[in-house]
Amino acid sequence: MALGTTADRIQAHSARKLSDRYADAWSDVYDGLRLHNFRFFMEVTDNDAITIRSLIEHQLAAFKKDDAQSAFAFASPAIQAQFGTPENFMQMVKISYPAVYRPRSVFFEKITTIQGNITQPVLLLAPDGVPLRALYLMEKQPDNTWRINGCFLVSLEGKEV
Length: 161
Known about the structure:
By secondary structure, this protein is an alpha+beta fold. Helix content is 47%, strand content 22%. The chain contains 7 helices and 5 strands. The longest helix has 19 residues, at 46-64. The radius of gyration is 16 Å and the shape is globular.
């Protein structure tokens, strides 16, 4: 069955598993919507891209120093509400995101938009030597600052970790 409208394509993608959505997002959603001149995406300025990269770098530095308070401060209000305290947040990152908590190397890719979310892809080398792509979902706050609103790790083959 062919999907006729851009809205149909977005709805179909939203119904798929998270790993499928992000694996296909690079070529299907982003490029497909741009081809249809769909004005859904928020424009990211060069200053925004620099600010977002700096924010992620500072959070990674906070993780490296085990500075839970600073790392937590870079998270969006929704993420902060979800974890409640900097200590809970840090514990979750240590257990569930070792590649983010202690990356052996970090390489920032070009910022993009995935399903309407400003997303900063970052290549990480995990402590065990496995290369991963971290997809940082960014959120612009009412005061025009940026915060991290989630992070998904995917293998370089496009599967969620």
